[in-house]
Design brief:
Blueprint: H1 2-6, H2 12-15, H3 19-26, E1 39-42, E2 46-49, E3 69-72
Bound molecules: zinc ion (ZN) (2 copies).
GO molecular function: zinc ion binding
Organism: Dreissena polymorpha
InterPro entries: Znf_RING, Znf_RING/FYVE/PHD
């Protein structure tokens, strides 16, 4: 009886819908916090800014490394 309890893996925590809001908020643009961050900054590879803010972004707002190249990504 006791062993069956211990064998339950914590997989259900990953499937909890409560994780979704945290994920979506982490994908918000770090500069304006209003639009989704869909622009991939290189060389640090952070998804940190939206298409509007990317035009004026010279340093990555997440790690402050200089942005050498910006790639537009499509999530949906
Ligand atoms: Zn923005
Ligand atoms: Zn970065």
């Amino acid at each position: 009886m006791v062993m069956e309890r211990n064998q339950q893996p914590p997989v259900q925590r990953f499937r909890a819908p409560g994780n979704l809001p945290a994920l979506s908020s982490s994908l918000l643009c770090l500069t304006c916090k209003q639009r989704p961050s869909i622009m991939l900054l290189l060389p640090c590879s952070h998804l940190a800014v939206c298409d509007q803010c990317a035009r004026t972004t010279e340093l990555c707002p997440r790690c402050t490394r200089p942005v050498m190249c910006i790639i537009r990504t499509v999530i949906l």
